């Protein structure tokens, strides 16, 4: 075990208040594709055709087809060792926040209880007119677009490019970033705002910053410890040692 890993594990065990930010990389070893990078979804698909309000207005069938395709991938995936270790990290801690940009629901399936989903959830639909929300199961109704009880066409409950994040989730994320003494950023390219600013906000508020990612990101040079490697290998080690 490297010195950095041992040091990071020590910080975790000593910390009184931990905030974790995860991105698509934490689910990579569950077989859920990331967005950027060589095999990323945004290499093969154009976000402006699938993940904007304008795209939905133009072609709601295509947008729903894309989200159903992703639901099926996620429904066939299991939480990996990183999700499970993060659920374990939460247990027995009073002050622990898990903030995720992921829409796959794998943190909850791994047993995490308090999860702040900044970008929504793949398995929910929302009525853009009256705000009605319903749960979906994978590939549900095949091609039909869900409608609310008043008959309006519903949309995936996902934050699209150009849209604001849910206010309550942002407030919670901001508060837990400024008040923690240790911030872990795991598996995110840290390029999408406002999530990308949370690690730096925590650091500027006095927290130690640990990053887990096989690649360098804009956060790497700011991290107190940067652990290079897959989350499913590194995060369980952090717990074992802590
Ligand atoms: P990205 O696809 O931008 O970045 C994934 C990150 O995970 C990269 O930095 C990879 O190096 C890293 N990574 C890959 N495999 C990993 C592994 N096994 N263990 C740990 N890290 C690994 O995904 P996000 O940062 O989550 O928004 O992207 C942010 C947002 O952009 C997403 O929530 C999505 C997208 O557009 C919406 O859809 C609203």
The beta-strand count equals 9
CATH homologous group name of the largest domain: TPP-binding domain
Order of helices and strands: HEHHHHHEHEEEEHEHEEH
Mean pLDDT: 94
Level of helix content? 25-40%
Shape: elongated
Instruction: Please tally the helical runs, counting DSSP H or I stretches of 4 or more residues.
Output: 10
Strand content: 15-25%
| Largest sheet descriptor | 6 strands, parallel
Structural domains: how many: 2
Side-by-side strand order of the widest sheet: 3-2-1-7-8-9
Question: Kindly, what is the distance between the CA atoms of the first and last residues, rounded to a whole number of angstroms?
Answer: 13 Å
State the CATH topology of the largest domain: Rossmann fold
Question: Low-confidence segments, ≥5 residues, pLDDT <50?
Answer: none
Bound molecules: 2'-O-acetyl adenosine-5-diphosphoribose
Task: Identify the notable features of this structure and list them briefly.
242 residues, Rossmann fold, SIR2/SIRT2 'Small Domain', 2 domains, 3-stranded antiparallel β-sheet, 10 helices, 9 strands, elongated, binds 2'-O-acetyl adenosine-5-diphosphoribose
Give a quick precis of the structure.
This protein is an alpha/beta fold and 242 residues long.
């Amino acid at each position: 075990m490297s010195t950095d890993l041992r040091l990071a594990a020590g910080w975790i065990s000593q910390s009184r208040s931990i905030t974790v930010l995860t991105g698509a990389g934490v689910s990579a070893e569950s077989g859920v594709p990331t967005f950027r990078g060589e095999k990323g979804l945004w290499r093969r698909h154009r976000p402006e055709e699938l993940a904007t309000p304008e795209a939905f207005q133009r072609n709601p069938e295509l947008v729903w087809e894309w989200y159903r395709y992703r639901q099926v991938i996620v429904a066939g995936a299991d939480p990996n060792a990183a999700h499970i270790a993060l659920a374990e990290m939460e247990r027995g801690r009073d002050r622990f926040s898990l903030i995720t940009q992921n829409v796959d629901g794998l943190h909850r399936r791994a047993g995490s209880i308090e999860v702040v989903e900044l970008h929504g959830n793949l398995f929910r639909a929302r009525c853009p007119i009256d705000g009605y929300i319903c749960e979906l199961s994978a590939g549900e109704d095949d091609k039909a677009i869900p409608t609310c009880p008043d008959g309006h066409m519903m949309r995936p409950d996902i934050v699209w490019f150009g849209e604001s994040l849910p206010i309550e989730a942002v407030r919670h994320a901001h508060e837990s970033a400024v008040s923690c003494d240790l911030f872990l950023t795991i598996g995110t390219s840290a390029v999408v705002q406002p999530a990308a600013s949370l690690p730096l906000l925590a650091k500027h508020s006095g927290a130690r910053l640990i990053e887990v990612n096989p690649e360098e990101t804009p956060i790497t040079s700011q991290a107190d410890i940067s652990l290079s490697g897959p989350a499913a290998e590194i995060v369980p080690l952090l717990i074992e040692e802590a």
